[in-house]
Amino acid sequence: MIRVLLVDDEELVRAGLRAILDAERDIEVLGEGSDGADVPGLVRRLEPDVVLMDVRMPRVDGITATRHLVSSWGPDGPRVLMLTTFGNDGYVYDALQAGATGFLLKRARPAEIVQAVRTVAEGESLLFPAAVRDLVATRGRCGGDALRGAGLTEREGEVLRLMARGLSNAEIARELLVGVETVKTHVGNVLAKVGARDRTQAVVAAYESGFIDPRRPV
């Protein structure tokens, strides 16, 4: 069972998300919050796997709440899936930098919302390659290859570039003609060397550092 916490200042949005998610056999909405200030207490009490959170809220926004979650719980904390109205919202970029695993448009179809929750709950990152690339190109600071000192092998660099295209482990395995377990090992090495919590953070770091040029298709 995937345990979900909903955080949005609009009651109608929370009600709609709850109706969509509670209809699934493998997903349970544990509770709701109306502001980022509610998140620490709710997470401690409910221990959700995924926090579905609005990026903009009146008192404490989703970015600040995400940053607090990541610093307090680290890799063992819940995954944050950020809700936004616009895919090119600069706040989304800030949220990804803060530690959000991915973002989801509020106008997404019910099936997309359900799949997004399942994806991040399984430890994968919800990446929209073109959107992330555009966000970093307009908001990020790229200069040189700051990941050169990370000591990535040639194969690990290949894996990171494929991650930036939004490919899953299975898709990367097919692309490189290797086993999925081998890919998992490479992904783990990339995250460790880059100092990233998950794939999303690794891809953002790759773009920001200049390892991958966000102005060019991957």
UniProtKB/TrEMBL annotation:
Keyword flag Transmembrane: no
MF terms (GO), sorted A to Z: DNA binding
Domain called HTH luxR-type: residue spans: 145-210
List of residues that carry 4-aspartylphosphate: D54
Family matches, as CDD domains: LuxR_C_like (cd06170), REC_NarL-like (cd17535)
Superkingdom, taxonomy of origin: Bacteria
GO BP term, pick one: phosphorelay signal transduction system
Any one Pfam family match given in the protein's UniProt record, by short name: GerE
UniProt entry keywords in alphabetical sequence: DNA-binding, Phosphoprotein, Transcription, Transcription regulation
Residue ranges annotated for the Response regulatory domain, each copy included: 3-121
Extent of the signal sequence: none
PROSITE patterns referenced in this protein's UniProt entry, alphabetically: HTH_LUXR_1, HTH_LUXR_2, RESPONSE_REGULATORY
Record protein name field: LuxR family two component transcriptional regulator
